[in-house]
Amino acid sequence: MNGIVITWPQIAVVGLIVLGIYVAELLVFLRKSRRGKRSGQQLLEAEQDSLRDEIAVLRREVAALRTRLEEFPIDLPDGEPESAYGQAMKLAQQGMDSAAVAAGCGISRGEAELIVALYRASQQR
Fold it and tell me: How many structural domains does the chain have?
């Protein structure tokens, strides 16, 4: 028998080498996963920063719009609306028909009919 003879010490050395390779692969895998977590965390932080910047821009725009809105005072006498539709509601409350409401407010006949119908429906409740 001129075959290959493997002894227990040789098997132990080969086992230790294989175990060392697995440990090295495990360490490499753990480092990569930590880097992946860090890059994912960095992406989340970048997205949060972007959203914070966007919120800051929106807040400035809202503040500018509020300032512009304050420049236009609303003067309504006795809290009554001055629109044609507000006048149409008043005429409907006075009992006028849709033709008179349309003529008195300068709105179309269909709009006047709708306003009169809505007013009458609200009175029937």
Answer: 2
